[in-house]
């Protein structure tokens, strides 16, 4: 095995961890779900560290890592929602944002060209609070007695940051597409030298 592929194997393992995590949440076995979530979080940090430390970047990894994160997050949100821990409209909002951005990136690649995706600060904040919310919801019913006000506050924050990050990416990619199209029109309109 080529060591350069090690981060990709770790990412694939994280992707497949989604299945037992979702199952444990659905069954109400919250301790097991939390242990596997901790392993998934560690694997995400580990593969990122290996890529940065040794420069083991691959085209597959550039696609696989965010896909694994999205599959894990959406799987967890689905399980937590089906278990009645979070409202269904929030699942639709979180999933809808991801579908919107996926369709937007496909459209950008089709009509404009390669899309360079850099995580925006608002997106990192959104991910942090999405994770905090599902952990809080799981802890509230399975392990600790949390005041429901905290969960409601986290739902409000996740709602705001989900919408804000979706709008931010739409604005950034839309602006890039507009600049690209303007530059293309300018090249066509300029007379030959």
Defining traits:
193 residues; mainly alpha; 6 helices; 2 domains; globular
Task: Please characterize this protein's 3D structure.
The protein has 193 residues and is an all-alpha fold. The protein folds into 2 domains: 1-65; 85-193. Helices cover 82% and strands 0% of the residues. It contains 6 helices and no strands. It has helices spanning 6-27, 30-54, 59-82, 88-111, 121-142, 148-189. α3 packs antiparallel against α4. The longest helix has 42 residues, at 148-189.
Secondary-structure map:
Blueprint (H helix, E strand, L loop, with lengths): L5 H22 L2 H25 L4 H24 L5 H24 L9 H22 L5 H42 L4
Helix pairs in contact: 1-2, 1-3, 3-4, 3-5, 4-6, 5-6
Task: Give the radius of gyration.
Answer: 20 Å
**Overall average residue pLDDT:** 89
Alpha-beta classification:
mainly alpha
**Discrete helix count:** 6
Report the strand count.
0
Q: What general outline do the C-alpha atoms trace?
A: globular
Succession of helices and strands: HHHHHH
Strand content: under 5%
The stretches of 5 or more residues where confidence is low (pLDDT under 50) are none
**CA-to-CA gap between the ends?**
54 Å
Q: Largest beta sheet, briefly?
A: none
Helix content: over 70%
The total domain count is 2
Q: Quick summary of this structure?
A:
It is built from six helices and no strands. The chain is globular, with a radius of gyration of 20 Å.
């Amino acid at each position: 095995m080529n060591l350069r592929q090690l981060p990709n194997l770790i990412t694939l393992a994280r992707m497949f961890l989604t299945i037992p995590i979702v199952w444990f949440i659905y069954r109400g076995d919250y301790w097991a779900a939390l242990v596997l979530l901790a392993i998934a979080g560690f694997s995400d940090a580990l593969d990122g560290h290996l890529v940065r430390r040794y420069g083991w970047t691959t085209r597959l990894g550039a696609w696989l890592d965010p896909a694994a994160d999205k599959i894990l997050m959406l799987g967890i949100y689905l399980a937590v929602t089906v278990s009645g821990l979070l409202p269904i409209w929030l699942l639709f909002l979180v999933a809808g944002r991801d579908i919107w951005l996926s369709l937007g990136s496909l459209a950008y690649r089709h009509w404009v060209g390669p899309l360079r995706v850099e995580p925006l600060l608002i997106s990192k904040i959104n991910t942090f609070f999405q994770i905090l919310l599902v952990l809080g919801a799981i802890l509230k019913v399975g392990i600790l007695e949390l005041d429901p006000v905290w969960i409601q506050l986290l739902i409000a924050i996740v709602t705001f940051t989900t919408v804000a990050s979706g709008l931010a990416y739409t604005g950034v990619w839309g602006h890039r597409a507009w600049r690209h199209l303007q530059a293309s029109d300018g090249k066509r309109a300029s007379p030959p030298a």
